[in-house]
Input
Amino acid sequence: MHGLTQFEMYALFGVLGIAILGLVYAMFLRRQILQEDKGTQQMIDVWEYIKEGANAYLTRQMRSILPFIGVLTVVLFFSVWIVSPTPEAQETFGDNARIIIAFARAIAFLMGAGFSLAVGQIGMRMAVQGNVRVASAARTSFGDALRIAYRTGTITGMLTDGLGLFGGTIIFIILGKAAPDALLGFGFGGTLLALFMRVGGGIFTKAADVGADLVGKVEAGLEEDDPRNAAVIADLVGDNVGDCAGMAADIFESYEVTIVSALILGLALVRITGHMNWIVYPLLVRGIGVLASIIGTYRVKGGKEGGAPEAMSAIFRGFLTSAAISTVLFGFVAFGYMRDMPGGWWRPFLATAVGVLLAIVIDRLTDYFTGTEAAPVQEIKKSADGGPATLIMSGLAVGYESTVWAALVIAATIFSAIVIFGNIPGYSTGFDQVSFILYGVAMTGIGMLTLTGNNVAMDSFGPICDNANGIGEMAGMDDRARQIMADLDSVGNTTKAITKGIAIGSAVIAAVSLFGAYITDVGIVDPTALANGIRVSQPQVFVGMLIGGALPWLFSSFAIKAVTRAAGQMVTEVRRQFKIPGLMEGKVKPDYARAVSISTEAAQKEMVPLALMAVISPVIVGLVFQVEALGGFLVGVILSGQLLAVFMSNAGGAWDNAKKLIEDEPRDPANNMGKTSERHKAAVVGDTVGDPLKDTAGPALNPMIKVVNLVAVIIAPIIVQYKYGLGVVGWLVVLALVAAFVWAYRQSSRELEEPITA
Output
């Protein structure tokens, strides 16, 4: 089968079996969760509001996305007619290669998009099922509440693991060495859906959150989830669509993209060395990761009393368990399968082990800058005594510093790949050396996302506990249960920030790997096109870098503007409802559905122009400035996007947890602490500023970076063919793309539709 040995065939089917095992484990956990008690009728009533709002959003989102998917499926099908399939595809399928690869790429695109959509939607629906059960369990046991919340999140994690591994493996089993032609479609489908779900979910959740906080907490002095506030249900729904559906799709597409880039770069090493091991090894590593995640996630348990430190310790213990198991098994597999490869078995093993270490370091680094126990958040808490201005300045400083350390960690990781793969006897010069180093970078990404099941479980844990806390407040639960949920919610804020850090790190590593795939693919079509590398000394390359560096800032600006527009409508609606006779006295229920509808409509309206800019911009730069400048554009996007994403994510997370610390203190005028204190009002302002940064613009940069890189890899062979001139048709295409970009720009930069003032 495609030149594989009998062992390799059995191993691949074993990996496929492990992927299915991950999905079976998710179904097993689902059955466990659904058997748990849902609590009192009051709790169920609140939960029903959340469930209905979530279902309405998902249905509307599906209708918005499907036409875009249909058009791109056709485009990807016909893209094979512009540039011939790879030599491996022609060798495998002969005269039928073009039509087979066209169908394979289009079907793989639909598969990637469908899997990404399934991970987000099913994961979110399970999070909604879990939140009320966590609230119910908190009435009797901290340990049970922790267990239910984490295992509900693990369902999403195992869906991400299982579907990502299943898709990549089945495509390789069917197509063999021709798989990279189709895998580009698979990765692009997942990445594009993640961008839609990330942007749409982020706008929805922050429009509701900002509206609820500004009017309910700052103006009216209500509790965070006071049932009289019309925006609270939309806020609780938003936690799910943003941090469950959005983040799950985000990490899923990183999982896909690292497989795609590893197999493309592995194929380059197959051409150089003649060994298929370079392609099979990444799939074996991913299979190990699924097994390790199953064991590690099941170990997460808490005691009967517990508290925030115990919960964080239990979650990190499960994470380290998975990391240790996977690293040991990497060593066994590398020694048994890769020892006859050039350079020896220890090189691929070390690269994957460094990836696991990168995930752990980013975990600890993000926990330090956003966790409630560490100095940065404590410093922000103290600065709140000076009012909103000093608190915001303190948070900005934390965000800026955290960006530096995250960049250094990623730089050290990439440098380690250079050290590990940079001096292989017989392959230590020229293109061969670069190919080995880029493969090493891709393997660090594979290693980093080995613990995807744990990472997604940690992320989903956050909104599940946040929702449970909201249900507890709206249903009037007792103080002990509320404290348990508050502790879990605080931990959830930190785990969300940690997984955002890991998602950003994985996005950068995946983008660098795709950058390597870009260089490799260009070299296949025209060995002379990038023979001298990508030279910054060339003016057009520098132009590309400047444009690429600017794109994440424009994208973030428009994402925040979208939240501002939607939040303005939400503020106006909440103020209007507060004036309804009897509502503030609790005699009349707010119109929760209207608030959900405002966020839903805003999210659908805003996400398409933003996605369009990410897809179109690399095509315009490539066609106008050519392939070397497009490489500079990618470098600019990766560097600028990483720095900006980490800053926004960590600054927002630190502001959020500083607010939580102040809220947890008893009301005491002497030290200006507790809810409704002046320090708390300052913290709410800081948290509100940070919300669109950490939950909309920052996370949306992850899929944006990968969309740009994947589009570049797909169109690079086309651009090379037109390096001597576009012709009339080519310039007409450029003009049409520029017109589409201008339309998207105008849609995203329009003024507020309604004023925020009443």
